Amino acid sequence: ITEEEMIQLETFQNYLLQSRNILAVVGAGLSAASGLSTFRGTGGLWRNYSPIDLATPDAFDMDPGLVWQFYSSRRYQAMKAKPNKGHFALAELSRRRPSTFLTLTQNVDGLSSRAKHEKNTILELHGSLFTLKCTSFFCNYSHEDNREHPLTPALANCEDEFPQKRKQEQPEPDDQSQHQSKRRKLNEPINKDLEDAKAISSSNVSSNVSSPDFKPVQTIPERDLPHCPECKEGLLRPGVVWFGESLPLKVMDAADDFLMTHRIDLVLVIGTSGTVWPAMGYIERAQRKGAKVAVFNTEIDNLEKLKKKGDWGFLGDASKWLPVALE
Ligand code: BJW
């Protein structure tokens, strides 16, 4: 820790102690030290695959087998992972402040809960990998903590980190034709979900996101995918929130309630690129009402600007900074 960081740490800890109400907005970077990939940037899950192909309702309609392989691999990785010191530090803070603290996590890996985060002080904005929901219009089946693996024998191979590239079949970098025809197919029909997802591809995801590397691991027919145990007909889907889908209403109501009834003094912004809405709106809302912000991230573009405003930026691994800063 540098001298400047020591000074930051001291002013932050003083402010933390005085803060009446605290909000934490958490992203994939918190679980990076547990070995789980983030979404965007180098090493992110979307470096080779477009969110259009994996994280929209249309992607699931078009190729549920591909989407299930992605989520089956994510479920397996998350089950294998262990909460890190960052999850534990945040969980401890939540237990010290059962009614004056709220974590809004965008993560679907369940690691904060496994670190014993106080149950009433965490909201999973984007759902959970371990919730299964029936996709049939006529069925309301939903199961909350399913940790079976594989869910069907056809998904037994989804244990490595997704995506797996099949080397021999990869087109040459200058072979645009295959790439373009794949994109054309995926772009039809264009609707709001795809438009939303494309907005991310162009604005926030590195340029190779719709890359020619796109390859399904294997083609799995629908009959071999997980089906609803209740209606027996509908396909099951992971209970995560895809682009273009509404966040769970209960969760949004609870978040709104906390923001409306608590005057928030401090927002901890942990391991998130800050690109996805409405999650980011909660930070802005708290800031507009006077909350200060402390960012914990390996990349902070506006570090100097933050400090000038009297906010804090702790540059580096959140699993290292949080135990020190929140002690
Ligand atoms: C470290 C680290 C270490 C690395 N330590 N740090 C307003 C304006 C513009 C657009 C919209 C808007 N409102 C809605 C939209 C559209 C869209 C959206 O946000 N688009 C923008 C991106 C352009 N939003 C939606 O579609 C949402 N739905 C919606 O608004 O519905 C409206 C509606 C109402 C009524 C009816 C119908 C609709 C839904 C958004 C759902 C997002 N879902 C995903 C996938 C979940 C499933 C899955 O897991 O596969 O959630 S997208 C993906 O991004 C995932 C994440 O939770 C989310 C955020 O990513 P996160 O966590 O920030 O990760 P990264 O990878 O981006 O960043 C990691 C960070 O960690 C980096 O900064 C690193 O530097 C850092 N890091 N290692 C600390 N060790």
UniProtKB/TrEMBL annotation:
GO cellular component, one term: nucleus
Residues that, per the record, bind Zn(2+): C134, C139, C228, C231
InterPro entries named among the record's database cross-references: DHS-like_NAD/FAD-binding_dom (IPR029035), NAD-dep_sirtuin_deacylases (IPR050134), Sirtuin (IPR003000), Sirtuin_class_III (IPR027546), Ssirtuin_cat_dom (IPR026590)
Family matches, as Gene3D superfamilies: TPP-binding domain
Biased composition (Basic and acidic residues): 186-198
Compositionally biased tracts (Low complexity): 201-211
Any one GO molecular-function label of the UniProt entry: NAD+ binding
Annotated region (Disordered), positions in chain: 163-214
UniProt xrefs under Pfam families: SIR2
Database matches in CDD domains: SIRT5_Af1_CobB
Residues the record marks as active site: H126 (proton acceptor)
Superkingdom to which the source organism belongs: Eukaryota
Annotated ranges, domain Deacetylase sirtuin-type: 2-327
Keywords assigned by UniProt, alphabetized: Metal-binding, NAD, Repressor, Transferase, Zinc
Family named by the database record: Belongs to the sirtuin family. Class I subfamily.
Record-given protein name: Deacetylase sirtuin-type domain-containing protein
Native source species: Wickerhamomyces mucosus
Lineage start: Eukaryota, Fungi, Dikarya, Ascomycota, Saccharomycotina
